[in-house]
Amino acid sequence: METMDKETLKEEIKKQIKYRFRKNIEDASKQEVYQGICYALKEMIIDEWIDTHKKYETLDSKMVYYLSMEFLMGRALGNNLINFGAYKEVAEVIEELDAGDLYHIEEEEPDAALGNGGLGRLAACFMDSLATLGYPAYGCGIRYRYGMFRQEIENGYQKEMPDEWLKNGNPFEIERPEYAVEIKFGGHVDAEYNENGKMYFVHRDYESIQAVPFDMPIVGYQNGVVNTLRVWDARPMHSFDLDSFDRGNYAKARENKNNARSIVEVLYPNDNHETGKQLRLKQQYFFVSASLQTAVKKYMQRHDNICGLADKVCFQLNDTHPTVAVAELMRILMDEYGVEWEQAWKITTKCCAYTNHTIMAEALEKWPIALFSSLLPRVYQIVEEIHRRFTEEIKAFFGDDQDILSRMSILYDGQVHMARLAIAGSFSVNGVARLHTEILKNQELSDFYKLTPEKFNNKTNGITQRRFLVHGNPELSDWITKQIGAGFITNLPELEKLTALADDKKKMKEFAEIKANNKKRLAAYIQEHNGIEINVNSMIDCQVKRLHEYKRQMLNILYVITLYQEMKENPGKKYCPRTVLFGAKSAPGYERAKLIIKLINNVADTVNNDKSIKNQLKVVFIEDYKVSNAELIFAAADLSEQISTASKEASGTGNMKFMLNGAITIGTMDGANVEIVEEVGRENAFVFGLSSDQVIEYEHNGQYKAIEIYNENPKLKKALDSLVDGTFIKEGEDKNLFQGLHQALLYGQHSNIADRYFVLADYDSYMDAQKQAEELYMNPEEWNRKAFLNVCHAGKFSSDRTIEEYASEIWRLKSII
Ligand SMILES: *Cc1c(COP(=O)(O)O)cnc(C)c1O
Fold first, then answer.
1. What is the pTM of this model?
2. What residues contact residue 705 under an 8 Å CB cut-off, 6+ apart?
3. Which cofactor(s) are needed, names only (predicted)?
């Protein structure tokens, strides 16, 4: 907030470049100028960073620790400049110094991609909102050496490349070696007795690893607050301990020294899918134990009784990934502070709160007991006792019912069920959109809901408008500011005030021009990165999100194929010009998803090179979808594809980013789409498809027959059969390349369920919705009006609203502003 005058700013940037790179600014590379600006900005925020934490200490504020395996931050510089209130000054200064323009200098920064997709991006949005609202909070995570892989497309196939995001250093972070803590793995536990005959547990022959925190500033929006994202790095303990784990074997001890770093080597690139790898559990315990030890120690510096912990500390578990926190907190309380079980359990279940992000079976975390207990022997003992007591509680409530026990037991079938442990150990269990929470209560977690209904609550997700409007769409943000002032930047519902302009022809023309300019900006990006020229007057139709069968990119590409076939059959007819954008990374081991990427690219190739359709349709696969290019895409989009199988997408947040930027949703009644349509009105969206109740009913009764739909629908049959008739096969490729996709939809493969995600069931209504979209687009004024109304009614979907709800209803935090 306390920005410098421009001359001081110039001197500061020049000084940073000189001392860091031994260069004058005229000789510095763009990367060096970028770093110079970062370090200058870091100097400006450092006092507020220190003061914020002083204030938390002085006020003895209750603090939330947001525990998350993932923080999908994207780039920091632009966001920090905006929130600090120095963006425009710095942009001017850079030009005056003749050092390039800020927009291009920002591109020097690699995305901090410490996350897969929605879940990690949610954590990043929450960090921004917490700081902006002045809430005492730490983000706690892992400082992966390599984040989400960089995606290259080669011959239409995804290729994964390492993400070397730390190659040029990370200017905003600060290493805090003085706060390093010890983390213990393996070994065994002995029960011993003290002189009073009281039993205690000694952990022996373990391997020690040092956790070293790196702090990154989270700048609140022009409010003087700077919070901290603390990510942990792993190191070998200083002098490796020959005594404790490997007496006399020096070489082997050296080897373990290298193993330490492997814990934080890389982010697991699976979205909504768990593979049960030991290293993954090691990552989880590593950052959870480090964060909890630190939080408890910090609390004890200002308080003398550990029993008051829950008055000052809350741990929010972002999905089940940090669930080991429940048992680890019990261990710290009992083994390190001598608290008795009952008391420790009271404290733990007042400190922990759990957010559920999915109900899909393949995403549920389960650990084989053998693996869990050998890696974390003391923690496992505690899990066993939690299980024993929880089982008693279940039996007392439901009776001795084996069915119920099979659905609720923490230890079951040789595995530790993490969601069950999280629910048992938390005072709050929340879903991330209204529909999702209802499904949790009435279906997936209905037994738990019956046992403890008071724990369950909903917190519909949100996104930060500072990044996805003010930074990502500066032209629209400035225009809105001219119309209604800048209040929306911290109070998004103020966008409602714009509604009055919907009937003002001149204003609506200005709004349309901004979208047109954003399309040009995106077209330049696509020209540069894909070498494809797109029609900026065409409908920009976007599906950007992780590649997953439940998200149904398949349904989208089937529509593209249908449209292409129609164009070929009607050569004289004029169609609504469309550019269909896909952006999606697939998990490297997810073969079917990777094949869908290949299919999209082959369809793109065929369609884009077919002169007979006269450029009325283009298909573009945007390589390496990530936060920074996402910002460009949202700003330029006309149509937002949110077409998951109803009940499968817990919330979605991409849907909200599109809405905020004036794209119209074509979507199913799934996740937060339900609430988006409720806010904007059904007439301002294109809704289609089975309801979640219908999907769930089909899943229960097994009556769904994809093949019948195929046989009865010639258009669909023609589109689907083009996958196996060679239409999209290129020279030299196996003509059966896409047969597996065809098979999976009609007959089922592996899972033996045909069309698990009801693509064919929704095909017809999706076609109808697409036709409505095309018709509307041919009437630009009407389209523009509806797109504009989406912006006006996006107020609910700010993560500021979400965080206010968490703070008042779960965390009971007080803002310092
Ligand atoms: C918002 C966002 C997501 C989540 O998108 P969904 O459509 O909700 O799945 C994933 N990746 C990036 C880079 C994002 O910005």
1. 0.97
2. 754
3. pyridoxal 5'-phosphate
